[in-house]
Amino acid sequence: MKNVSRNEAKQRFEIHLDDGAVAFSDYRLTDGKVTFPHTVVPPHHEGQGIGSALAKTSLDWARGEGLKVVPACSFYANYMARHAEVHDLLAPGVAEQLGL
């Protein structure tokens, strides 16, 4: 799969694509939580699992850091709703918002 890196300076996870484009997921850290407000995959790269690679890597990182997750981005909300293995990462009250 694609090589995902964490860019601390820009507060985002990134994948540098072969054509020079960059796919990314922004994050914000606050009080033991990480919020993912925005994910961008260039349109000509959609449907290739790039967004899922960003989500999986960033959620693995959140787990390793002991952070709870607020999926403010619709992609993260949908990803987390579909993947039971990350439900435990949801910040208090978020599971109910997602209908879980």
From TrEMBL:
Keywords: Acyltransferase, Transferase. Pfam families: Acetyltransf_CG (PF14542). Gene3D superfamilies: 3.40.630.30. Its EC number is 2.3.1.-. Residues 5-91 form the N-acetyltransferase domain. GO terms for molecular function: acyltransferase activity. It comes from the Bacteria. The keyword Transferase applies. It is an enzyme of class 2 (transferase). This is GNAT family N-acetyltransferase. It comes from Sphingomonas kaistensis.
